[in-house]
Prior knowledge:
InterPro entries: NAD(P)-bd_dom_sf, SDR_fam, Sec_Metab_Biosynth_Oxidored. By secondary structure, the chain is α/β, with parallel strands linked by helices. It has a single domain, classed as 3-Layer(aba) Sandwich (Rossmann fold). It has helices at 8-19, 31-43, 60-73, 100-115, 117-121, 154-175, 201-213, 217-229, 254-269; strands at 2-3, 24-28, 50-54, 79-82, 87-88, 127-131, 182-187, 197-198, 236-240, 243-244. The protein has an eight-stranded mixed beta sheet with strand order 3-2-1-4-6-7-9-10, sandwiched between helices. Helix 1 (8-19) packs across helix 8 (217-229). Bound molecules: NADP nicotinamide-adenine-dinucleotide phosphate.
Amino acid sequence: MITGGTDGMGRALAQIFLERGDQVVIVGRDERKGRDFLDAATGIGVRERATFIAADLSLVGENQRLVERIATDFPAVDALVLCARHYRATRLETGEGREHGFALFYLSRFVLSHGLLGNLEKAESPVVVNFCGPGADFGEIRWDDLELARDYHGNTAMVQGGKLNDLLGVAFAAHHPGARTRYVLYGPGMVSTSFSGEYDAESAAHVAYAKANGRSVADGIAPAVALVDSPPAEPLSAFNADTPVSLAGRSFDRSDAMRLHALTSELLRR
Length: 270
Ligand SMILES: NC(=O)c1ccc[n+]([C@@H]2O[C@H](COP(=O)([O-])OP(=O)(O)OC[C@H]3O[C@@H](n4cnc5c(N)ncnc54)[C@H](OP(=O)(O)O)[C@@H]3O)[C@@H](O)[C@H]2O)c1
């Protein structure tokens, strides 16, 4: 199952696994892109193994609906690959009143990672691959303003989101000690993709540079394919491309992870 599977690295991963004989579920917002994916699958004769589910993952309710649908239709999930993202130069609150980046880049991944654990545990060698930017040594978490009500900047939201996902990985491993499911935080580096988002002039210039100078999608996903094929032995691991990231750094602080997990659980309960 691949979120953000309608474009960029998510779509390329979906294509690879489909062609190799796997059953693949992709999730995205854009019905047209979803249909394109299914048409391409028909073209290579594997339509019956391809599923597109339309969902706006910036909404917690849609993530919960997705968890329920997967539980019913696909009881065993070998790999959950988390690729949905959308940059916003200006702050937006979702219909549920959450800051959009916090909701899509972090809350969605929290709900899906924990919510699909039962499905993952039914697989032989289950793994979650969370596409983010593990171990970044810049930026910070605004504990008193996680949804960036003050001084919002798109880059602040993106960098903080990466840090929240590092802590999600730590808390996931800590909360499911006996699980066979491996959690992998994966940073692809700068890769030339669609860069889903709404940009201002400054951020658009950065995206234009990244599109022109980023690595190819094929290079960006190659280590992730290997991680799905042979998940690491450790419950939690992190990689930037194929280079392991030490989990000893500040980004993976266990007490921060537990604090964030508690805050998130409380927020979802409310
Ligand atoms: N590209 C890079 O340089 C880079 C660097 C570091 C990390 N990453 C990470 O790698 C992952 C993949 O990035 P990418 O650049 O390949 O992605 P991308 O080309 O920008 O595509 C983003 C995907 O997210 C989906 N999406 C956006 N908003 C959504 C929503 N509200 N609900 C559901 N789906 C939504 C889009 O689907 P629709 O179009 O159907 O909405 C699309 O499939 C992301 O997690 C990103 O943070 C990328």
